Amino acid sequence: MPARDFRAQRINLMEHNAVILTSRVAIDHYFRMCNEMRYTVPETTKYFCLSESIAYYLQKYVQYRKRKIFYGQQTINDLVDVIKKHKDEKFLLPVSDVHREKIADFMDDMKLNYSKATFYRTVCADLSDFNGKLDYDVLVFFTPMGIKSLFKNFPNFKQGDIRIGAFGHAACEELRKHNLRLDIAAPTKETPSMATAIDNYIKEVNKR
Predict the structure, then answer these.
(1) Stated pTM of the model
(2) pLDDT tens digit sequence for 146-180
(3) Highest mean pLDDT range out of 29-38, 54-63, 162-171?
(4) 116 with 133, same domain?
(5) Cα–Cα dist 161/200, whole Å
(6) 3-class SS of residue 18
(7) How many Cβ atoms sit within 10 Å of the Cβ of residue 129?
(8) Residue finishing a domain among 103, 120, 137
(9) Same domain membership, residue 137 and residue 158
(10) Helix, strand, or coil here: 46?
(11) Count of H helices and E strands in the chain?
């Protein structure tokens, strides 16, 4: 997203002294936008990251040891206690134009003072190198956007014998909208990760 489109959201970066970072992509576009807006991020800015790997990625832009950086295990709920200690800050939540509302809902529930702003856009990948053919046994999707990308690149896609896996409720629902057969679903109590779900599926198929 160019700076001129960002300005249309009327978000003042200077008003926010804490940032919620959900991915490395969000970090890249947050600092890119700050640069385009000629805004120097203060050393006092606090960063709240969903995971340790996301937090360490901040080293690309800031001196890690000199910043106030907090991180969870994988979800926003892991940060409940630390955010409560900083609840008086004004938070900024950089997102894509395609995103889930779970984190915003979390912040609403905690009655935090925050702004949600679009910093970047999600676009469908160009899969023209596949020459119109998907020669795979399994396709796995982690977001609804991935499924939309499939049909943008292959509008006549037919599932046939291809197994399809989906991670998360939103991706599963998007599959059903396109009348695709869901063969592998995660997370569940038995399969918390997609890798485990695929492994279990292969074991079951090999028994037949």
Answers:
(1) 0.68
(2) 898 898 888 888 999 999 999 988 889 999 999 99
(3) 29-38
(4) no
(5) 18
(6) strand
(7) 5
(8) 120
(9) yes
(10) strand
(11) 8, 8
